[in-house]
Amino acid sequence: MQIFLSLIKYVWLSKKFRGFRPRVKSAPEWLILGNGPSLRLIVADLPEEPSNMVFCAVNYFCLSPEFIRLKPSAYVIGAPELTFLPEQTIPEHILESKRNLYKTLSENTRWPMTLFVPYPTLGTPAFKKLLSSNPNLKAYGYNATPLEGPAGFCRFAMLNGWGLPRPHNVLIPALAMAIRLKISKVRMVGAEHSWLRTLQVDDQNRVMLDHEHFYDSDRQVGHMIHSTFRPRRLHEVLQKFLYSFQSYWVLAEIADKQGVEIINLTPNSYIDAFKKHAFSHEHFR
Question: For the chain, first and last CA: distance in Å?
């Protein structure tokens, strides 16, 4: 039944396309820069443009001063408000953040960089304007259709671009792109995913948790927002966590079958699907 449901989702929600091999800076290894607070412990020590590695940034990373210094060659955007949602449906303060991100990418990307975005994003006026404003920016679409079913079906479908394991966090499409590009070694930093230890429900039944990112100047305790921009209820928050951690296990199994090594270098990370190593500057030698 899950296979049939996924096929229906593919037919209705996915855009058919040829298998892609984007022109990303050639390197045997990717370092995916998650935006978790632990990244600030090492980001200043990361070398500029290491010869053996591609930096892959995600979502709001470009708003950090480290964007210009590290010059990521790959950039994955997954948040719906940053991609294909109609701007008239987005609250003004979130829309302002999106405009700021697009403006920063347009004005500050002075090196070749490949953007990976959900397919519908490629056709939006704002994204078309972004690409036309800076010749350094190239874009490739990915299908974010959620895939479910037996392991063999999910592997086949993801490798052929039909969709992704439920992409409830931007690291999921980032890892999927690395696997599809046959990157032999993938490392992650800034990927704590430790929201469970900060989760609480206040006296007004508001579900609150810590949203702190490495570029924040203080703690960011607040709601987790639903795709309709209302606060999520507790069961919805826990369901989102479930889907995310489950998707990492699907990706781990696909990566193993493809000969892609994924290692999490994030201290105290809650992601239990990948091997963990302590971060070391030996990774850049």
Answer: 48
